[in-house]
Amino acid sequence: SNKSWLYFYKTNLLFSMYKQQIINYLTQHKQSNLKLKAVLFDMDGVLFDSMPNHAEAWNKVMKRHNLDMNKEEVYMNEGRTGRGTINLVCQREHGRDATDEEVTKIYEEKSDLFNSLPTAERMKGAYSLLLKVKSEGLIPMVVTGSGQHSLLKKLEKHFPNTFKEDYIISAYDVKHGKPDPEPYLMALKKANISANEAVVVENAPLGVESAVRAGILTLAVNTGPLDDSILLDAGADIVFPSMQALADNWDLLQNDILYCSKNSGKKKK
Length: 269
Ligand code: MG
Known about the structure:
By secondary structure, the protein is α/β, with parallel strands linked by helices. It is 52% helix and 9% strand. The protein has helices at residues 2-13, 19-28, 51-64, 71-76, 82-94, 100-116, 126-135, 151-158, 182-191, 205-213, 228-233, 243-268; strands spanning 38-41, 139-143, 168-169, 198-202, 217-221, 238-240. It has a six-stranded parallel β-sheet. Helix 10 (205-213) links the parallel strand 4 and strand 5. The longest helix has 26 residues, at 243-268. The two termini are 13 Å apart. The chain binds magnesium ion (MG). Magnesium ion (MG) binds at residues 42, 44-46, 78, 203-204, 207.
């Protein structure tokens, strides 16, 4: 009966941290199951601990131009294009968009300063998670708004034999960046899979929004200074305190995904 099924469900939920969130995802997106084939990783703040450098570069260059952008605001707007970021601050401080010259100058200076800072390290936990992902036969992909020309080289250097060129989606592959769903929809298209065959790992509110709008189960890793509530409000299905925590709990999560997919299948019959 419905009642005993519900009891069974609730009892089992007590043994897991993730079942309820997975069921919520399946319900919201009208999916009956999750059959993972690929894991879609954002880059800055997920694979690399690069956000402190971005925050410092934006903060300093804005100041140079008599604009105020504190570091938390950089984290809040991570994923926006350079122009979008500059306009946001210019609107607030001057009540107008930045001119083309301002955009070019500020963005150039920001990139120069960013490139002069020490190279960001691999995020702790990222490599061990990727080894697990690979050993399970899942496709690791990168979905980033970054337009760095040396992306593939950089990824290959820090994560050898992990990401195939076809499975890296960057600023050059899409018209609309995050929070538009296009980058994540493009990733699904390139891997020839559906939304319920992937999971996203994101650290930024706009990235989370993009992934959720693409209909994919979205794991947020809170690697910056923002409150968990900001990532949850953006639509994250589950929030982890770090990449290491996600790596440590990856097997549990896989078990819960399998469990929820089996049970939702049974329910339909
Ligand atoms: Mg990020």
